[in-house]
Write a structure and sequence with these properties.
Layout lengths: L8 E8 L4 H12 L4 E7 L4 E6 L6 H10 L3 E3 L1 E8 L4 H12 L4 E7 L4 E6 L6 H10 L3 E8 L1 H35 L6 H32 L5 H21 L10 H25 L1 H7 L5 E6 L2 E6 L8 E4 L8 E6 L2 E4 L1 H4 L5 E3 L4 E2 L4 E2 L4 E7 L5 H13 L6 H29 L4 H14 L3 H20 L2 E3 L2 H9 L2 E5 H5 L5 E7 L4 H12 L5 H12 L7 E6 L4 E6 L2 E6 L1 H6 L8 H10 L3 E7 L2 E9 L6 H10 L3 E5 L4 H11 L3 E3 L7 H10 L4 E5 L5 H6 L2 E5 L4 H6 L2 E3 L5 H35 L4 H4 L5 H20 L7 H4 L6
Parallel strand pairs: 19-26, 19-28, 26-27, 28-29, 29-30
Antiparallel strand pairs: 1-3, 1-4, 2-3, 5-7, 5-8, 6-7, 9-10, 9-11, 11-17, 12-15, 12-17, 13-14, 13-16, 18-30, 20-25, 21-22, 22-23, 23-24, 24-25
Length: 816
């Protein structure tokens, strides 16, 4: 099956018009009906659809048309490009065709008189810079951006929608309440005349307030989709039609006066969607806060002069000027100036960092006290901030496996509710002899009270808010599945170097064995200079610090995680473990092994040096443990988790470090390629493993574990393999990641419970089950109010995650 698919492309569509789980399923179904779509996943909370498709067989326009035909809207990004070099109408046509041919552009209109090109595009597929490149490739000049309208357009669309709902709510309640009062208090008007007054007053308001509901219901039926609007339209439609029939005296009598009920139902339904839309809008505040970190413009030095340009027009190699108080626009390297930069919005570290020539700066951070000039290196989607935003958006759009419960429930929910409503009507009217008025009331109440929206919002709102909160705390979660796996973890395994320790080892001892101290360091450093291992760098740094001359090594070789070898000035030099020297038949002189063991028992790594078949010396290297490591280990134990350390160090060194930081389980002398095998053995023993690491050799173990937690200051390969990425190199954030997983999953289960409880409790009540025992009739107005409350309750519970703080960041962990 996989061979049938060629190269696929992913696109993210921003949607409008969705308000319940059946809406998201309807959009998914509409997209999947296209044979060229490999997968489609809709996030109701974020109002987005992630689509993977074959660009050879379909395009973005066709996908958007499928969404629109299903009755929903697509929110586009818009930009106006300034174009130079146009002279005639053919130029207009050429540029329009060039822009429309760019994947992700759905519309382009060029104005020759103003020399502007208005482009509608999908920002997940194309950038403004790429559109500018297309203009230039067509032979014209791209002169920059007139104005980016995407964020403003989206905000305006949301505000317009909310304002429209507010107007309909005011009209609905403004007319329904007086109508209801006229039914309660005698006005001295005969019933048959009052019913005509109600018809005349209620009809215009009802048409206005209920129009969006009936329109959505019609679109659903036209696309063979039973959505919630179909049920709501049936409920309020039955109430209104019964009222009209009563007024006309056709089949029903004047006692069937549901005008105020029909209008109030429509108003309550609109109120529920208004409150839900406002609450859902707040779930994405974290991602919007991240987006707002990026400045709109940058000051660049071109041809010796300062020029303020749009951020999209900054290219790698530009010399950028940042004044005190300004945000750094893109990532780069400082060339001139010294200043302190506040990086707290990216790293969470409250203390500003000193920057000088040669240091890196990150876009979105704030320059504090002096002018900096830096060379732009990563711009657009390549910046750290853009990658963080992309990671958060990707995670917010994902679904943890627990979502399948709600998805399965939603698929059968509406048919079952329709069956219950019809059964309630038939049972009361035909079997139990109730009045037609009572039976209709039960039918309408069941149709209106049922709400799968709460089920559909239970998971995505919690994931969206939880992932956003994680980003604010410096914990980047790649997917909803990672949150679920974090909750299930039973054992946390740590790499040692750079993870538990600072990753900056230093030489503390040199024990000469036949050569003097300087010669041992010189020969060892000459060979180690060819290696990038942290221990090798420590030896080279020590030689430089002591002013020892370091020669050139020939025939350098790495020996499978045990050390290195080479020839220095014609002498054969080995630098590595005790076993490396033993394999080469090199014996240690009396007392040397005991001295090395003493170093190891102090938590240091003993590096042995052999020269021309003789032991030449032992070098003691210590990598300091991070300050927060013991606290993090204690916190994990307080959470009931087992903790293990996987290291290439020998048993004595590993045990000494483990004792110091509180780890009981140690897997020592593990070669780099064997870490993943050790994780597998732990899994085979029944553990669900989270692996925390930062290096290239950690990537397989990160990918093998149920949950891979990558240290953000580590290598790109490790970060790419992690399910969770920690922006800071602080292990308390690893604890926070596991706490976040537990918290979000607990909130998802609470949401799902309340959604199920609400429906399972109120649908029977609406059907009249408790009436024989209590005499209480569940009025349709109450049903509508309860329905509105259910979705708002679920979203509000999810929003509580915005203020959550991990326990490990609140107070010192305890062992109880």
């Amino acid at each position: 099956m996989a061979d049938e698919w060629g190269e696929t492309r992913r696109a993210a569509l921003k949607l409008s018009g969705m308000h319940c789980a059946t809406c998201s399923l309807a959009v998914e179904e509409a997209l999947k009906n296209d044979p060229a779509v490999r997968s489609a996943r809709v996030n109701l909370a974020a109002n987005t659809a992630e689509v993977e498709y074959d660009p050879e067989k379909t395009d973005l326009t066709a996908l958007e048309r499928a969404v629109v035909d299903a009755g929903y809207g697509v929110v586009h990004a818009e930009a106006t490009l300034r174009v130079g070099g146009m002279v005639c109408a053919m130029c207009v046509q050429t540029i329009e065709e060039a822009l429309r041919s760019v994947p992700g552009v759905t519309g382009a209109q060029v104005n020759l008189a103003t020399e502007r090109a208005h482009v509608v595009y999908n920002p997940s597929l194309v950038t403004v810079r790429e559109m500018g490149d297309a203009v230039e490739a067509a032979g014209y000049q791209y002169l920059g951006l007139e104005g980016e309208l995407s964020e403003e357009a989206e905000r305006a669309a949301v505000e317009a929608d909310l304002a429209d709902k507010r107007r309909r709510i005011l009209v609905g309640f403004g007319v329904a309440i007086p109508l209801m009062l006229s039914m309660w208090f005698p006005l001295g008007v005969p019933m048959h005349i009052l019913s005509w007054i109600h018809l005349a007053v209620a009809t215009p308001a009802f048409v206005y307030v209920a129009a969006p509901i009936f329109r959505a219901a019609w679109l659903g039926l036209r696309n063979r989709t039973l959505n919630m609007d179909v049920m709501y339209a049936m409920g309020i439609g039955v109430a209104y039609v019964a009222s009209v029939m009563g007024t006309l005296g056709f089949v029903l009598s004047h006692e069937f006066m549901f005008y105020e009920t029909a209008l109030m139902l429509a108003a309550f339904l609109t109120l529920g969607r208004y409150l839900e839309a406002r609450a859902k809008g707040r779930t994405g505040q974290a991602i919007r806060a991240l987006m707002n970190l990026a400045p709109r413009t940058a000051t660049v030095l071109r041809d010796g002069a300062e020029a303020e340009v749009r951020i999209e027009d900054v290219v790698p190699g530009d010399l950028v000027l940042v004044r005190p108080g300004e945000r750094v626009p893109v990532d780069g390297e400082v060339e001139e100036g010294e200043s302190f930069v506040d990086e707290s919005m990216i790293t969470g570290e409250p203390v500003p960092v000193a920057k000088r020539a040669g240091d890196d700066v990150v876009g979105g951070t704030i320059n504090q006290n002096s002018v900096l000039r830096f060379r732009a290196e990563r711009v657009g989607r390549e910046t750290v901030l853009a990658q963080i935003i992309a990671l958060v958006e990707q995670a917010q759009g994902s679904r943890p496996p627990v979502q399948r419960i709600a998805d399965r429930a939603v698929t059968w929910f509406i048919p079952v509710v329709l069956a219950i409503a019809i059964a309630a009507f038939a049972a009361w009217y035909f079997l139990l002899g109730a009045t037609l008025l009572f039976a209709l009331t039960a039918l309408i109440s069941v149709l209106v009270v049922a709400c799968p929206c709460a089920l559909g919002l239970a998971t995505p709102t919690a994931v969206t808010v939880g992932v956003g909160r994680g980003a604010e705390l410096g914990v980047l979660v790649r997917s909803g599945e990672a949150l679920e796996n974090a909750e299930r973890v039973t054992l946390v395994a740590f790499d040692k170097t750079g993870t538990l320790t600072r990753g900056a080892p230093a030489v503390t001892d040199v024990l000469p064995l036949g050569l003097d101290r300087g010669a041992v360091l010189s020969l060892a450093a000459a060979v180690e200079a060819n290696s990038q291992h942290p221990l090798a760098l420590a030896v080279v740094d020590a030689a430089g610090a002591e002013g020892v001359p370091v020669g050139e090594a020939d025939g350098f070789d790495t020996l499978a995680g045990r050390g290195v070898s080479g020839r220095v000035d014609g002498r054969e030099v080995l630098v590595g473990s005790r076993s490396l020297l033993a394999d080469r038949g090199i014996a240690l002189p009396p007392g040397a092994d005991e001295a090395a063991r003493a170093l190891e028992e102090a938590g240091k790594t003993a590096v042995f040096v052999g020269v021309d078949g003789e032991a030449a010396g032992v070098i003691g290297i210590e990598d300091p443990v991070k300050e927060t490591t013991p606290q993090a280990i204690a916190a994990l134990k307080a959470m009931g988790l087992s903790v293990a350390m996987i290291t290439g160090d020998n048993r004595r060194t590993a045990d000494a470090i483990a004792r110091r930081i509180g780890i009981d389980r140690v897997l020592s002398e593990v070669l780099p390629g064997e870490k993943a095998d050790e994780v597998r053995r732990l899994q085979e023993a029944g553990e669900r493993v989270a692996y925390v690491g930062d290096g290239i050799n950690d990537a397989p173990a990160l990918a093998t574990a149920e949950l891979g937690i990558a240290i953000g200051s580590g290598t790109d390969v490790a970060i790419e393999s992690g399910d969770v990425v920690l922006i800071r190199s602080d292990l308390l954030d690893a604890v926070a990641a596991l706490e976040l997983g537990r918290k979000v999953m607990r909130r998802i289960r609470q949401n799902i419970f309340w959604a199920f409880f609400y429906n399972s409790a109120l649908i029977p009540v609406a059907a009249g089950v408790i009436y024989p025992f209590t005499g209480i009739v569940f009025r349709p107005e109450w049903a509508a109010a309860a329905m509105a409350l259910s979705s708002v309750t679920v979203v509000s519970l999810s929003l509580l995650l915005r203020t959550w703080t991990p326990r490990v960041r609140r107070s010192p962990p305890t062992d109880h």
